[in-house]
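Quick note —
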Amino acid sequence: MSLSLAALHVYPVKSCRGVSPSRHAVDRLGLAFDRAFMVVDDAGRALTQRECPRLALIEVGLDAGTLVLAAPGCAPLAFPLQERAGRRLPVTVWRHRGDGLDQGDAAARWLASFLERPCRLVRLPPEHTRRVNPARYADEAHTSFTDGYPFLVLSEASLDELNARLATRVGIERFRPNLVLRGATPYAEDGWRRIRVGRLELALVKPCPRCIVTTVDPERGERAGNEPLLTLARYRRGEEGPPFGVYAVALGEGELAVGMEVEVLEARG
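Predicted structure written out below.
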């Protein structure tokens, strides 16, 4: 089995569209700038496609040290990536409670107008720490504004196998992976404990339970029935939802590039 990294996906703003670089740095929180920004409601809670599907229509660009947001009918909005400024707001992502740096009234108005609800844009403060669940991963590892882990690993073969069961195919963007692997058998990633991508090792921690975000049509920014979640649930069983892809943490920092060789270092017993 010859494995390689088929694609990289980074989501600078949680629940908005991602970017797909050919190579990208990995820092202490995962892929650099992945979920470094987040849209929150007026209580500071993370807004996602679960309750706000229109987030799927917001395009995000990383260009020469600048974050650019674009959406249908809206003028682009830009922020310097390295300038970590803004008043502190208490924010919540699932069980995590911490601070976010508010990105100002102009961003809040832009988002509120497009999303049709009060909201604000925050970014990670420089001292941000948020440990992944120690009950799942005992060593020290931290993540950004993700749902809980810095990486999501998924194979092309798993998506192909799912699509073979669906009346209408769905794209990989429904599942928002960070690393897409080529050359595996369907769901082989479920059985891996540790892999090496290029020179960077990753520990695969737990399956990713799927939710209604997978039913959001990213081209329309609205839910499109019950698929593929309904089909997944018929043959993929999990306590929190049907598993599809695996959460992971990096055992160090470095750089990843599309085409890198992937080696399985340890399988689950």
